[in-house]
Specification:
Strand 7 and strand 8 form a beta hairpin. The longest helix has about 50 residues. The protein has four helices and eight strands, in the order H-H-H-H-E-E-E-E-E-E-E-E. The chain is α+β, with helices and mostly antiparallel strands. Keywords: Membrane, Transmembrane, Transmembrane helix. It comes from Granulicella pectinivorans. This is Type IV pilus assembly protein PilA.
């Protein structure tokens, strides 16, 4: 009888040990996970901002190249004053000065990778009753400064990218 009780007691102890993790063990694991997340999430956000800024610089360069292509294709117009004039749906007909089909649709819409893009026309001259723009400025500003990006970017007809560290369009520093 004594052996049976000892066997029963040993089986009961094993059952208790097989129940799973204790509350303390679970709390320790969750604490370690929280510490790792606290260290990792800011780095992830920083990487996302850097990726958005890199994409914005590439997009500004693409818009600048599209402007030069546009001025070559439509010399009577000079430079385009809107992203829509550089865009247009490929294959929807022949390109026109109002829809040159040079830029991809997402960039011609003015929003990409957390940045808003715009074109500002500069001086113009009128030749044979046709306005011809001699200069332009492309700007890219973050949709949410500090979240989608920290810097603003600008490019003009001289094809030089400048930076506004405050995230606006007051670009004075060379890239």
């Amino acid at each position: 009888m004594m052996t049976t009780m000892k066997t029963f007691e040993v089986a009961r102890r094993q059952d208790r040990n097989d129940d799973g993790f204790t509350l303390i063990e679970l709390l320790i694991v969750m604490s370690v996970m929280l510490i790792l997340m606290t260290l990792g999430i800011p780095q992830l956000l920083k990487l996302r901002k850097t990726a958005n800024e890199t994409s914005a610089v590439a997009s500004v360069k693409a818009i600048g190249a599209a402007e030069l292509t546009y001025s070559s294709a439509y010399p009577a117009n000079g430079f385009a004053c809107t992203l829509a004039a550089l865009g247009g749906v490929q294959g929807s007909g022949a390109p026109t000065p109002q829809s040159a089909q040079i830029l991809p649709a997402d960039l011609a819409a003015g929003q990409k990778a957390g940045y808003t893009f715009a074109i500002t026309c500069g001086s113009k001259v009128t030749v044979n009753n046709q306005d011809m723009y001699n200069s332009f400025e492309v700007t890219a500003v973050p949709n949410s400064i500090g979240r989608s990006g920290d810097k603003g970017f600008c490019l003009d007809e001289n094809n030089i990218i400048k930076v506004d560290p405050a995230g606006g369009t007051n670009c004075v520093q060379a890239q």
